[in-house]
Amino acid sequence: MSRLDTPAQTRPETPPTETQPTETHPTETRPTETQPTEAETVANGAPERAAPARRGTAGGTLRLLGSELGLTFRRPRNIAMLAVLAAVPVIIGVVLRVVSDDGAEGGAGSIITAVAGNGMMLTFAALFVLVPLLLPVAVAVVAGDSVAGEAGMGTLRYLLAAPAGRTRLLAVKYANAVVFGLAATALVAASALITGFLLFPVGPITLLSGSTIPLAEGLVRVLVAVGYVAAGMAALAALALLLSTLTEISIGAIAATLVLVVVTQVLGAIPQLAPVEPYLLPSWWLGFDGALRAPMALDDMGQGLLVFAAYAVVCGSAAWARFTTKDITA
Amino acid sequence: MSLTIEVPGASAGAPPPRGTGHAIVTRGLTKRFRGGQVAVDSLDLAVPAGSVFGFLGPNGSGKTTTIRMLLGLVRPTSGGCEVLGEPMPEGLAGALPRVGALVEGPAFYPYLSGEANLRRIDAADPTSDRRTAAHRIAAALDRVGLTAAAGKRYRAYSLGMRQRLAIASALLVPRELLILDEPTNGLDPQGTREMRGLVREIAEAGTTVFVSSHLLAEVEQMCTHVGVMRTGRLVAQGPIAELRSGGEPRIRIETPDPAAAARVLGALGLTGVREGDGEVSADLGAEAPERVNAELVARGVAVRGLAVQRPSLEDVFVGLTGEGFDVEA
Lengths: 330, 329
Prior knowledge:
The structure holds 2 protein chains of 2 kinds.
Chain A: H1 21-24, H2 26-54, H3 57-74, H4 76-101, H5 110-117, H6 121-130, H7 134-153, H8 155-161, H9 166-199, E1 205-206, E2 212-213, H10 215-245, H11 250-269, H12 298-325
Antiparallel strand pairs in A: 1-2
Chain B: E1 22-32, E2 38-43, E3 46-48, E4 52-56, H1 63-70, E5 78-83, E6 86-88, H2 92-95, E7 99-102, H3 114-124, H4 133-143, H5 159-170, E8 177-181, H6 189-204, E9 208-213, H7 216-222, E10 225-230, E11 233-239, H8 240-244, E12 250-254, H9 258-267, E13 271-275, E14 279-283, H10 289-298, E15 305-309, H11 313-321
Parallel strand pairs in B: 4-9, 4-10, 7-8, 8-9
Antiparallel strand pairs in B: 1-2, 1-3, 1-5, 5-6, 10-11, 12-14, 12-15, 13-14
Helix pairs in contact in B: 3-4, 4-5
């Protein structure tokens, strides 16, 4: 701790070993090294740093987002969740393959039976299975942990003292959760596509409406569905982010988000509550099957996207209002 | 002890020259928490630029809340503060890149290495240059002696290593002000000594250091200035030498005849005369001790010993705060 090496004197590539000349010639190194240190700090240090302060804040924000994404995608917990999400389409595919080999095709849902006829339909089948709960769990874990987790660890105060900037940090946290939701959805689709192509015949696709489109257009429709689902997850991420700014316990924010996801889906399923249903976020998540109609059900999907945007704006604003005025005492 | 407020105004870019201006100024700074509890009460703090300022007070006296307000983490209920000439929390973006801070102990990502943790903190500072990051991180780790443990996960760090890592994160760029909240907490005696050396070294390079502590001895050894907190209020501040001389010196005479000696001291005009068992003491005031001695001898009082005692800093502080400083309040 007593070494006096300044950035100028340290050799960056070779980390110094324990036996440094500093220990052996203290009287020799001290005066010669202290002098430049003082001169640098007083004379050059501040003006040099003042320049980048004015320009390049966009680059700095991208760097913070990069750091955030690095944390998210390298964290074992998140990798495990992504692995589970990627495994589900494979499991569905294998099960369907076994079932269709047995010749027991009747009874299953229309999309499920369609998979046996065309591997591409496995993508939609997998999304139908994952979108109501498992995908929201993954997004809620990342977004719900985003602020509360940092507060709980105490790292939030150091990020803000850096200073990361409250609005900037919140925006980066949200962008990170949105990217994670998109990546998770795309991963499910990719896993399903590969599994479907390997296990089932692939060719022109018969849509829910009965008409047939070529394979290439089918891939475009998969992309549309992925985009729509990711938008729904982005809306959920805004809700989880809001809850995350309200607590210092990340598991609380995550659990609260998931309770809301489940409860709203239950409410949406009660016929007597039909008037409320359009206002509930999960009601719109399965709207991605509009991409399977001919022509695409752009009206319905557009309305879903508007609901997602409304949720994102309302929850995002509330999160911002809360986070920028909050006393950070953790 | 005098409180002169001269704020370096537009010269925000360059550090104020040593000895002029203030790195931290607070005016009537008050924080009342939601329960109605007043953590900090009308604080008027003036930390001269270039000083090593000891912020002293028992645990729970409002030191950490003050530091959180200085860093823009907590919003004052009333009053205001300026850090490096910038009002907080409004001027946070301009001031904080020039401030290194250790607040209420180290906090890092347990699953990242020490080096990765520093990279993360560096990325959060919008003014830091990513091209020099690796170089600066290596230099900061080297400076606190953590080079060998740079790749080790934070989870596996000892408390002392964690504290060093926090210091390293405060030293990632040259700072004009370092705010250290209880920097020696959890350090062994060797670590404490190293921390003192590091603070001295940083201060010599022109950085103002604001260091909070509940340990008087620590502040006495490191600091040039001191501010004393008691239950949310600042009870004293100023250069440490000035505070130390603030107490009146007393003269103490050992004699077999205390009553006679007391009469002589009274005749000399000394006040606060107290007779003890075989000794007498009094406030010396402006009187020269040798004259007191000559007078005693001239009046036939046998003097076995004579001493002038200045009150220790601890006596001064106990007088100010009503309690000792190593007491966990």
